[in-house]
Amino acid sequence: METEEMTDGEIRTDALIVGAGPVGLFAVFELGLLDLSCHVVDVLDRPGGQCAEFYPEKPIYDIPGLPVCTGQELIDNLLRQIRPFAPSFHLGQTVSEVRPAGDGGWHVRTDQGTAFHAGVLVVAAGAGCFTPRRPPIPGIEAYEGGSVLYAVRSIEAMRGKRVVIAGGGDSALDWTLNLHEVAQRVTLVHRRPEFRAAPESARQMLELAEAGRIDFVLGECAELQGAGGELSAVVVKTADGGRVAVPADRLLPFFGLTMKLGPIADWGLDLAEGRIRVDTEKFETSVPRIFAIGDINHYPGKLKLILSGFHEGALMAQQAFRYLRPDKKLLFQYTTTSTNLQKKFQAA
Ligand code: FAD
Fold it and tell me: What's the 119 CA to ligand 1 centre distance in angstroms?
């Protein structure tokens, strides 16, 4: 496998996979079977794509050979399955720039400045970038990135801060529970006494509120007070029609995610119906050495199913090998009978 840090700071890899959803993860496996190295970038802070974000605890019944598993179980199994190939993950980063490298490969950069030289690019970006839903609070943009954060990248950065968390889902409740011992004060704001979050998290949160260790306010964040992008209070419209100003240094709104194609739309690839057009032999886009697999692609008869994405990844890997190892013969091998592959699986 070819993975090395180049002197000019670019990470050299056979394949760069954009998207760590189920299809991006299985692509690591298919490329790994052919001895091709992978780096994987995802804008989210954990692998799993839609399975982990939208239905981690719901059952899936149509994965071949697995009568039933939850979204998260499928992702955990895929992560186990690709362990022999030791892919590197670059999470919390958006692939923002793709330029031809002159040798057939690609220079790729993320919004965090991570740079790659990739022999092939595999776009497994699902429905595009998940972007946080912005609450309708006038002037919130002025506070974003500093006082208003849609994801917690560092718990330490919350130490000693007065933190208002808005929402009733798992993220809102998990962060309320995780931050209350670090922050000076945590206030959870939610418009209803019912929660979408796991019942156990809601129970623990209410117990902390009853013990006076956090505040729980029934209402909606209506106004931000502060100056120069620095928050001083969040005004909450309470369920009984009143308004209370909650002193705050940080507001963390957790109202779910929407999906946008994002920067991929600017990479010069042929699009159809907002997705990337590919052939069905190699799942290659209109640009050689850029592949698109999973929900992001479009071809006649496409089914947006996980099993379709797995098949697409297998055929993509064959063509990637032909580009990346032009001097080697592509051997078709069964995992059951290849001693070379079995050594790798046993070592892992
Ligand atoms: P995704 O899972 O969408 O993953 C794409 C990843 O790419 C995301 O993590 C995203 O953050 C990342 N990304 C996007 N753009 C960028 C960028 N520019 N830079 C960095 N990262 C980026 N399918 C089934 O087969 N069976 C089912 O039972 C089933 N049930 C479902 C239930 C629900 C509620 C939903 C919403 C979907 C269901 N699906 C089901 C569909 C299935 O989840 C999708 O087909 C599958 O997730 C597609 O996988 P993917 O890897 O192509 O994309």
Answer: 24
As a whole number of angstroms, the distance between CA 77 and CA 69 comes to 10
**Is the CB of residue 95 below 6 angstroms from any atom belonging to ligand 1?**
yes
Give pTM, 2 decimals. 0.77
β-pairing verdict for 88-91 and 38-42: parallel
CA of 295 to the centre of ligand 1 (A): 7
Q: Which atom of ligand 1 is nearest to the CA of 305?
A: 25
Residue 181: what residue type? E
Phi/psi class of residue 162: alpha, beta or left (left: φ > 0; alpha: ψ in -120 to 50)? beta
Q: In the chain, where are the structural domains located?
A: 4-130+258-347, 134-255
Q: Mapping DSSP to helix (H, G, I), strand (E, B) and coil, where does residue 27 land?
A: helix
Whether 4-130+258-347 and 134-255 share one fold: the answer is yes
49: Cβ below 6 Å to ligand 1?
yes
Fold of 134-255: FAD/NAD(P)-binding domain (3.50.50)
pLDDT (tens place) for every residue of the chain, 348 residues total: 444 555 478 999 999 999 999 999 999 999 999 999 999 999 888 899 999 988 888 899 999 999 999 999 999 999 999 999 999 999 989 898 899 998 999 999 999 899 999 999 999 999 887 778 899 999 999 999 899 998 776 789 999 999 999 999 998 999 999 999 999 999 999 999 999 999 999 999 999 999 999 999 999 999 999 999 999 999 999 988 899 999 999 999 999 877 777 778 888 899 998 899 999 999 999 999 999 999 999 999 999 999 999 999 999 999 999 999 999 999 888 999 888 888 888 877
Whether residue 60 contacts residue 70, with contact meaning beta carbons closer than 8 Å, is answered with yes
Mutation choice for ligand 1 from 63, 306, 308, CB with most ligand atoms inside 8 A: 306
Q: Which atom of ligand 1 is nearest to the CA of 94?
A: 19
Yes or no: domain 4-130+258-347 corresponds to CATH 3.50.50.60: yes
